[in-house]
Design goal:
The complex is a heterodimer of chains A (302) and B (423).
Chain A (H helix, E strand, L loop, with lengths): L1 H44 L1 E4 L2 E4 L2 H8 L1 H32 L6 H8 L1 H4 L2 H11 L6 H8 L16 H27 L3 H8 L4 H29 L3 H6 L11 H11 L3 H26 L2 H7 L1
Helix pairs in contact in A: 1-13, 2-13, 3-8, 3-10, 3-12, 8-10, 10-13, 12-13
Chain B lengths: L1 H18 L5 E8 L2 H16 L2 E8 L1 H14 L6 E5 L3 H6 L7 H6 L11 H6 L11 E8 L1 E5 H6 L8 H14 L20 H13 L16 H14 L11 H10 L4 E4 L19 E4 L12 E7 L7 H11 L2 H9 L7 H4 L2 H6 L3 H9 L10 H16 L5 H19 L1
Parallel strand pairs in B: 1-2, 1-3
Antiparallel strand pairs in B: 3-8, 4-8, 5-6, 5-7
Classes of the chains: A mainly alpha (302), B alpha/beta (423).
Chain lengths: 302, 423
């Protein structure tokens, strides 16, 4: 029946046209603001400028393997991310468990815990930079009051303490985030499983490990995923606190990429490094989702 | 992202060109924010009222100016008719032929070259190749490093004015020992330097390096920072660092300034822009106690690092003739005197000797001596990258992570790699 088929086709087209029209603006924005730059950055990463114009090459990627600055910056990024994430997660979990109970002044505690997270990162960086100043800063000033010799406590200026200092500042700022998400997760857990555990005579530790943690998995996933992505691309606090120094002690990959692109104007190499960072972040995120996604949820979506 | 923004910008600029078909002559000027750029901005306003030229001034902070200018020059948009540039950027811009050769424009105006009143060291910066090539810019602000020291403390302990680096070390030791009260009490450090990676460490090291007969490159252009002289210079810097406040391996200019203004350090290498702050009662605890002189010597005479602001005309400017008129006007003795009154060291000898200015800036004789004997950072298009790498190793050595020899060997290898890549 050619006639009816044509009819259906025309109707199909009309039905398709309207949704397409609605999607078009969003699609255009997505294409121009995120897909195009992504493809563009990969192409410049794969090109090398020469006198006769750009040529295709893998040189930028090969250079990373022998670039001591790149490898050290990568190592710093992972040390920074792992240390900060562990502290933030454990502290956040501890605080969430504490403040999930009915204690006096709970509201006040909760509100004041959120203050660091609400401050812009740049402000946090500047405030801590001043507080950690070895000669005029509040931290050493306070320690001096207690008669502690602060001569060797140069914090962000010391090659041994600088990394610790920048990690501490991140923990100070972002533990509240872990706390907030985990607290919300804890409060969403129904009472019944706990009652059942109580009747079965489980100890508090057993209840925590076998009831609380599994039911908290979705919140844990959110905290780990978002914080990891943030920590791997950390830039602003470190840029303000140490600018990657002293020497190279706190240079992370984002700082190095920034320098390569905007100080040395080597956009190709910077794009290649950004791409590697993006790939690593993706792999890690995928692993998290694979191991922490609750079983039921995956089945439902299937 | 950048390209999209750029496209939108270009679109906007071209749109505004179409819509504003005014008969008036127009120039666009890129300046740095801060006192150096403010003064040129003010000059542009004066020029507007005197002539029929309309001048748009685009202002960027120091850290962004370089990238904005380079993007514009590379894309050949001709958006700017005049750009202010810091002299270490000049080789990069000139080597890629981004700038207009000023000689034909000067000849057209009956001048064989720039006014001989300009300080030779400043003019040399404006030529590519250095000192010998054609002129691609004119010098506007004549900064060069000075040696700052506390006159009162030197008199108190009857020390001679610091003429050699060994004098400096001995004086630092004396002052620090005598001016310390208890382990946690008030203290005046003998010296304060900045050894944060990058520009800071390199700027404070170069005068020592040069005085110790170190050279960054040999005659054939190979890096030689790990020569025995270079290692000895770094050794000396670390020795002097023992009399610098703890944490100096991460100091920048503001930390050094704070120590000097608070009176907690007795000597340093610094830039003339800081001089006026010492007489400001709301900032300074050492009013009238600071003395400024040329840099100390060692095996070789002391030489300051030069840091001039230049003005150039991009090759793709559509108004080169008009831009040249403004450039000559803004760098004339009369206009530069106004800039000097606003706080910028001039680049003309006659102004350093001007009676009115001398009364206001008593350090001018020392500044002129320092400027005339100054030395530029090595003239290479890769300077930003080299300075960054060199600064990292200097900072590492100063924070005790590497020995001077290790630091210089690694720096040398890294500089060699950078030069290799550029080939």
């Amino acid at each position: 029946m050619p006639k009816s088929r044509r009819f259906f086709n025309a109707q199909n087209k009309r039905e398709l046209l309207l949704p397409l029209l609605f999607i078009a603006p969003a699609l255009a924005v997505l294409l121009s603001l995120s897909i195009y730059p992504l493809i563009y950055s990969i192409t410049i990463g794969l090109q090398q400028e020469a006198a006769s114009g750009a040529r295709w090459t893998l040189e930028n990627f090969a250079r990373m393997a022998t670039d001591g600055f790149f490898l050290t910056a990568m190592a710093h990024t992972f040390v920074y991310a792992i240390a900060a994430l562990s502290c933030e997660f454990l502290l956040g979990l501890g605080l969430a468990l504490l403040l999930n109970k009915q204690i006096r002044g709970r509201g006040l505690f909760r509100a004041s815990l959120l203050v660091p997270m609400m401050l812009p990162t740049v402000v946090v960086g500047v405030v801590w930079r001043l507080m950690l100043n070895p000669n005029f800063g509040a931290v050493n000033g306070t320690l001096k009051q207690f008669g502690i010799n602060t001569e060797s406590l140069t914090w962000t200026a010391s090659p041994r303490l600088a990394m610790l200092s920048v990690i501490a500042v991140d923990v100070w700022q972002w533990t509240p985030f872990a706390f907030l998400v985990l607290l919300a997760g804890l409060q969403a857990i129904p009472q019944e499983p706990y009652e059942a555990a109580l009747i079965d005579g489980s100890s508090r530790w057993q209840t925590f490990v076998h009831v609380t943690l599994p039911l908290l998995k979705p919140s844990i996933l959110i905290v780990l995923l978002l914080r990891t992505m943030d920590l791997l691309r950390v830039f602003d606090q470190i840029f303000i606190l140490t600018e990657g120094g002293p020497g190279f002690a706190t240079e992370t990959i984002s700082l190095y990429i920034y320098r390569t692109a905007f100080r040395f104007f080597d956009f190709g190499y910077a794009a290649a490094m950004s791409f590697v960072l993006l790939a690593l972040t993706n792999v890690i995120s995928a692993l998290y989702i694979r191991f922490l996604q609750p079983q039921q949820a995956t089945e439902v979506t299937k | 992202m950048r390209l999209t923004t750029l496209l939108i910008l270009v679109l906007l600029v071209s749109l505004s060109c179409i819509t504003s078909q005014t008969p008036r002559k127009q120039l666009t000027l890129a300046v740095v924010s801060g006192v150096e750029g403010d003064s040129l901005k003010q000059a542009a306003r004066d020029y507007e009222s005197q002539t029929q030229t309309h001048i748009d001034v685009v202002e960027f902070p120091y850290t962004n100016l370089f990238e904005k200018e380079l993007i514009d020059l590379k894309a050949r948009t001709g958006a700017y008719d005049l750009i202010m540039l810091d002299d270490p950027w000049f080789p990069r811009f000139a080597s890629e032929q981004f700038l207009t050769d000023l000689s034909p424009l000067l000849q057209k105006r009956g001048q064989s070259g720039p006014d001989p009143d300009f300080v030779g060291a400043s003019l040399a910066l404006c030529r590519y190749p250095y000192q010998t090539g054609p002129f691609y810019a004119l010098p506007y602000v004549g900064n060069s490093q000075l040696f700052f020291y506390r006159k009162d403390l030197f008199e108190k302990y009857s020390l001679n004015a610091p003429a050699t680096w060994n004098d400096v070390l001995a004086a630092a030791k004396t002052i620090q020992e005598k001016e310390t009260a208890g382990a946690n009490g008030a203290k005046t450090y003998g010296y304060v330097m900045r050894a944060a990676q990058g520009n800071a460490a390199v700027a404070d090291f170069m005068p020592i390096f040069w005085a110790f007969a170190g050279e960054m490159f040999d005659a054939s252009g190979k890096p030689t920072v790990n020569s025995p002289e270079g290692i000895a210079a770094l050794q000396f810097m670390i020795e002097l660092g023992k009399y610098s406040p703890p944490g100096y391996a991460s100091f920048n200019a503001d930390d050094v300034g704070a120590h000097l203004l608070q009176g907690t350090a007795a000597m340093s290498i610094n830039w003339p822009a800081w001089i006026s702050a010492f007489d400001n009662p709301s900032k300074s605890k050492v009013i009238g106690k600071m003395e400024f002189t040329t840099l100390p010597r060692a095996q070789k005479p002391g030489q300051a690092e030069i840091g001039n602001w230049l003005i150039a005309i991009p090759r793709d400017s559509h108004n080169a003739e008009l831009a040249m008129d403004f450039l000559l006007w803004a760098t004339s003795a009369e206009q530069m005197k106004r800039s000097a009154e606003r706080g910028n060291p001039p680049t003309r000898k006659s102004l350093f000797q001007d009676a009115q200015l001398l009364a206001k800036y008593p350090a001018y004789p020392a500044q002129l001596r320092s400027l005339e004997s100054s030395r530029p950072r090595p003239r290479t298009p890769q300077w930003n990258e080299i300075e960054n790498a060199f600064g990292i190793f200097l900072s590492k050595a100063n924070s005790g992570v590497l020995s001077p020899a290790e630091a210089m060997n690694q720096a040398n290898a890294e500089i060699e790699k950078i030069l290799q890549r550029a080939k």
